[in-house]
Each structure stands twice: as C-alpha cells, then as structure tokens.
User: Fold this.
Amino acid sequence: MRKPVLIIMAAGMGSRYGGLKQMDPMDSQGHILMDFSIYDAVQAGFEEVLFVIKKENEKIFRECVGERTSKKVKVGYVFQELDCLPAGLDVPEGRVKPWGTGHAVLCCKEAVRGPFAVINADDYYGPEAFRLIYQYLTEYPGERDGRYQYGMVGYMLGNTLTENGYVSRGVCTVSGDGFLEQIQERTRIEKRDGGAAYSEDEGRTWEAIGMDSVVSMNLWGFHENFLQELERGFAEFLKTEAQSNPLKVEYYLPSAVSALLGAGKADVRVLTTKERWYGVTYKEDKQTVVEAVKEKKKKGLYPEQF
Assistant:
C-alpha cells in the first residue's frame, strides 16, 4: 500500500480575521501554524505534503512555506479554482467565493493515489492527532464488507473554544464502538456561564452543549475511493443545493461524509484525542496561540528551529 499523503487546505482567506492568516508567524523564529502541523506530521511518518492553494497566492506561498517545507518532505501543489468543476457544469455568473472544503479536496483528484489525511492550514492539531491518523491509514484497508473505511480525529468541544467570540463546529454523534453516526453543524457555539451553548437564531436563544461533546476539526483520513464519491456528490450539489444560493453556498467535507453515512456506503472510525486545538479565528486569539507555542517549546515538544 502507498504511504499516506497529507493534504493541507490553504486556499481560504480568513474573513473574520482578515488577510492571509495562514502566513502569520506564531513565534520569534517566524514559524506559522502550518509549520507545527508539518513537523508533527513528519514525526508521525508522513513523507509527502500536498498544498491546496489559490493560483494567485502561489508565489508568496512557495516563498513563505513551500521552499522550506520541501527540505523536509516531498511537496506538491494543487490549485483550488472556481472553474474546477465536473464536466458539463459552469461557474454561476458573479461567483467569486471558493466552493468549500469538499471542493478543495476534490481538486486533488489527479494528484492523489492511495490513502491521505486532510487538515486545515490555520489550525493546530497536536502531535497525537497526526500519530492517530497516520496509524489508522497505514493499518486499515480502504474498504471492508462493501463499505468504505475512513477515519476522523475527534476533539473535545471544550478544547476547541475561543474566549473571543463564537465558533462553528461539527458536533459528532459517536456509537458505543467508536464509529461516527452523525455530524451536526452548529454555526454559533461559544463559552457561556462556565460551560458552552449554541444558538440557531443569531444569539436570541441558547441551548447548552457539553464541553466533552466530540467535534470534528477537519482532520480526516480517507482513501482514494473518497475522491470519486466527492466528484459525484459535488456534481449533485451544484445541480440542487447550489441553485438556491449560487454565489455563496459551499460544499463541505462533513456534508460529503454525512451523505455517505446516510447511504450506508461508509464507516468512519472516530479517533478521539485529548489534545488542545488552537486556531486564530479572531485577531485576539493570536496571543493565546503564541503563549501556547512558547509553553510547548519549554516542554520539549518543538525545537526552537525546525
């Protein structure tokens, strides 16, 4: 079996944060969040990284990330462009917004052969998360008993929240034997009254949610067969859901996975971790991440230069 490839989705711009936040240094050595993910991935066993970026950002991305990454692992690039569509379909007039995470991975269809993991560029996942997903991809087949076999690293909700506003999380229902049953997207979750709560009416009313709820942070493990399903799912999405809001609606990875679960075509093993997730959803989050990086270096998780 081919060794797993790591796909890093780096084409999105941070609308709430502003600017190309994937390039924002988190320590005095100039390391960005992607550097820590790549370091952890290499330590776990990954030997190839595939960056999904916008063509317009290629030059700065190669200079800031790609060139130094290529000294550690094999590096490839895929461009997520609006016109990367299934045959016979066109970009809606006036559309400028990217098509979403499902489309980002689909753009890798011609570049991936074998198992692969997927992460966001601007998230910190922690060393254990990469060990878990690499081990899963190297030990489990892509299909069993007529069903696709995929993996997902699940985080405790309380380990993923910010002090500076609300977040969107895919809240997971997990079976007793550790398989994903459902992902429900909660687009407004925040810390409230010593715990967490979500709102579905723009903050007018709130429903409590357990801090130990399992959530997806877009760290997935797939096999090549998933790309074929993505292509079919995206084509159907463009013909149906995209018609109602052609300029803004997006095709998300959790939605694609949920469709396969609902159709009984896939099993997704949830690999739970107690790692603390870090990200810069808001500008005010950066200092928290900077302090966390300092602490992890003190503990010896990362060298000063890598």
Remarks:
- The chain has seven helices and 14 strands.
